[in-house]
Design a protein that fits this description.
five-stranded mixed β-sheet, alpha/beta, seven-stranded mixed β-sheet, about 375 residues
Length: about 375
């Protein structure tokens, strides 16, 4: 018998008790032999993982997700894999229960889902909204790096540029404009920002290739067509702010996940910005294995660099929406709500275990494509 863990959608509550029960019961379940990949080609899975069932591996991820509830759904063994790394037409969008929004609808929805701009650290600012994050790293004296462009030109103008101005910051101080990965909810506002800032878009080489295939998205518009290429291991220094850029084959083939210095009243910390989270690239065990390997690699780099803060580019994923509310009410001498200490590294246990569990689920024939 294979026990499956079915979790509620992102943001819902869950208990570790259920995960531990799954762990105990699944330990008695013999793992199945790995099957071939969905493409019919030979695929060699990780032998060590094959000794454990998907339920056992997923239970480890769910347990680690106690501190990261927005990530727990990655371990849902009832997940149906969507693939957003392929061109989308309006017809395909509607067939998946989606509907193309008008500009007015998009603006109205953005007004409802507000999350105000905020200075989160001395040199880190949130200029996104309740659905999608955009992060500004740096200072007015040394300049800024902007990560991501939100979903549309309107959102970029209202939340990024408007947010900066409301915080007393000058958009002209932005030195580099980097898009974490080639999905429309993060590149949607790039056309406005390229014109407003006079800066080129920067992405990784694999995601430039991805965006060249995506064309015009019915909701988010055209993908970026040209710009600069970010290299793995590249370093940006803005005064006392050091940003190390890493290309992680995970959410997309070339997601950019920076590790950076942030300061809390002058006290330095290191933050990881995991550049893309969902497993929405189709039932692809190779990509899932790459995702797990990237999480493992970033865990080691984060250990070496003393990372004690986890960020993502969706507020519900990393809990930054709650942490920002807590920050508003922070009293003198209170700990910073974003700083987790060594506990921040447990996020990589969630990311790695969930991706591995889903890979084994596919490799052992336990995933069936819906009709």
């Amino acid at each position: 018998m294979i026990l499956k863990i079915s979790l509620e959608p992102v943001g819902s509550s869950f208990t570790v008790k259920a995960a531990l029960m799954a762990l105990a019961l699944a330990a008695c379940t013999p793992a199945q032999s790995p099957a071939g990949s969905l493409s019919g080609q030979s695929y060699n899975a990780n032998v060590e993982d094959d000794l454990e069932s998907p339920s056992v591996i997923a239970a480890k991820g769910v347990k680690a997700a106690e501190a990261f509830p927005g990530l727990a759904s990655l371990c849902d063994l009832e997940m149906v894999f969507q693939n957003v790394n392929v061109p989308r037409s309006a017809t395909e969008q509607r067939s998946n229960g989606e509907r193309t929004e008008s500009e007015g609808e998009r603006r109205s929805r953005g007004e409802r889902e507000t999350l105000p701009p905020m200075q989160v650290f001395d040199n880190l600012y949130f200029v996104g909204n309740a659905g999608v994050s955009a992060w500004l790293v740096g200072t007015p004296e040394d300049g800024f790096v902007l990560f991501d462009a939100l979903t549309s030109n309107e959102a970029a103008e209202q939340d990024i540029i408007g947010g900066m101005k409301s915080l007393g910051l000058d958009p002209a101080d932005i030195k580099r404009f980097i898009i974490s990965h080639g999905h429309g909810d993060h590149y949607g506002g790039h056309r406005y920002l390229v014109q407003a800032l006079g800066l080129p878009v920067e992405m990784s080489a694999p995601d430039w290739e991805l965006s060249s295939r995506l064309g015009i998205h019915p909701r988010f518009g055209p993908a970026p067509e040209d710009g600069l290429t970010v290299e793995d291991g590249e370093q940006i220094i803005l005064g006392n702010t050091t940003i190390n850029l890493y290309v992680t084959s995970a959410h997309t083939p070339g997601t950019i996940s920076p590790i950076m210095t942030v300061f809390d009243n002058g006290e330095p910390h290191r933050a990881i910005l995991w550049g893309g989270t969902g497993l929405n690239f189709g039932p692809d065990p190779r990509q899932l294995r790459d995702y797990a390997a990237s999480a493992s690699r970033l865990r080691e780099l984060s250990k070496e660099q003393g990372v004690d803060i986890f960020l993502s580019n969706h507020p519900a994923r990393d809990g930054s929406d709650k942490s920002m509310r807590d920050l508003i009410n922070r009293g003198e001498g209170d700990p910073h709500p974003f700083v987790m200490g060594e506990a921040a590294l447990a996020v990589f246990d969630v990311l790695e275990s969930c991706a591995k569990a889903q890979a084994v689920r596919i490799e052992t024939g336990q995933y069936v494509e819906p009709e």
